[in-house]
Amino acid sequence: MSHPSFTQPLILGGGLAGLTAALHLADAGLRPVLLEAARWPGGRARSYPDRLCGEELDHGPHLLLGAYRHTLQLLSRLGSRHHLWSPPHPDFTFWEESAGWYHLAVPRWPAPWHLLAGLYGLPDLSLADWLPVWRLLAAVRVQSERWEEVSVTHWLQQHKQGARLCQRLWYPLCLATLNEPPASANAALFSNVLKHLLFGGAQALLPMLPSVPLSQLFATPAVRAIQQAGGQVLCRCRVRQLQFSGSVLQAVHTEQGSWWHPKAVIAALPHDALRVLLPPGLLQQQLSSLSCAPIVSVHLQYEQPLSLPAPLLGLPTRASQWLLDRNRLSQHPVRQGRLSAVLSGAYRESHWSAAQLVQAVHQDVSRVLAPLRVAPPQVGRVIRMQRATFAAWPGCNMVRPPSTTPWHNLWLAGDWTATALPATLEGAVLSGVRAAEKILALCGHER
Asked: Does 52 reside within a domain?
C-alpha cells in the first residue's frame, strides 16, 4: 500500500492520544488511517464486557477535573460530555479512621482564596498548618522546572507543609494525578498540576466522573466521528516493523499489510512498545529511560444494597485510595451494591493475589460503612495494569521526547511525550492535538 500525500496520514495506536490525533486530522479534511493492535480501540480509557460481573467494566475508573480543557473540548466534539457526573461546585469527600468524614469543598472565589476557604473543611488543622500554604502557592506560580530532580515529599518539606495537611490533601492529590507515591514523585510535575488546578479558574477543581462505561464516553463515539469524517479505523492491525531509510520512515509493516512511503505518520503507541520498533539512537535511549508504574482496580458486587455517602470517596490512609459507588454513577443501574476501588502507584499491591486484593478492599468498605455489617462480596474482579503509566520519577521530564522526531515524516503522541503534564487523560488528548497540528501545518504549507 502506498499513500504519497498528506491527505491520508497514518496513526499508529488507537488509545486516547491516537484517536484524538485522527479525529483532529479528519475534522481538518484529511482521511487518516488509524491502526490498532487490539480488538477495540481506546487503550486504557476503554471498557469491556465482563462475564463474571455481568456488566461492562472499565479497565480502571477515571476521574476528570474541570482543568482538563482539551479533554472536555474533545467530549463536546464527540457529543458525550453529558455523560459526565459532577457536583454543583468542587467538593471531595474523604474518610479517615481517626478523623471520620470530612470534605474539601471549594467555593467559587478567586484563587488562591478558594483553596484557603476549602481548607476549613479539613479536620485538625492549626495555624501552623495554614500559614505555610502561602509559601507553597507562591512556589507554584514560578517556573516548575527548577524542581525537576526533587521528590514531592522533599518539595513539600522545603515549603514547610505540615504532616496533617500533607496526609489529607497533598499526598492523595499527588498519588491520584501522578500515579506515584510522593516520596518518589516528580515535584516539577506536581507543581505544574497544582498550577492548573489552583489557578485555572473557579471550576478547575471540579471533579467529573463518567456515568457510562469509558468506551461509550471516548472510543465508540470517536471511531464513529472519524469514520463519518472520511477516516478509517483498522483493529487487530499490530505494527510489526518500522522501516527507516536515512531521515525518512520508509514503510510501516503490520499484520494486515505494509504502508510504503507514507508522507505523515503519528506514532501513538505506548512508549515501551514504540521503543523496540525504533533503530538505535537518542530517541530509543530516551524511551528506554522511561519506566512504567502500575495501577490496580478492584470491582466488587455485594448482594446487600450498599451506598457510599458520595459517588467518589477518598481514603488517604487505606489500601483503597479511592472508592467509587458505581450504582450511584450509572445512568441505568443493573444491580445494587457495586463498588470499585483504585490503587494508584501499586508497586506492592500489583503483586498481591486476587483474593488478597478483594479482601483488602472489602475491609476498607466494612470500615467505611461501619456499624453496618457488610457481608463479603459475591463477586470480585481484579484488573492489574502493570504498565499503566510512565513512572513520574524525579528527572523523568528530561527524557520525555517532544512530538517531533529525527525523521521528517514521523511524529509522536502519547501521555508520555513532553506535555509537562503527568500521564492523565488530559496529557494524552493534548499530545494528540499537538502531533496533528504539526502535520496540518506542513500540509497547509505544501498546499
From this structure: no
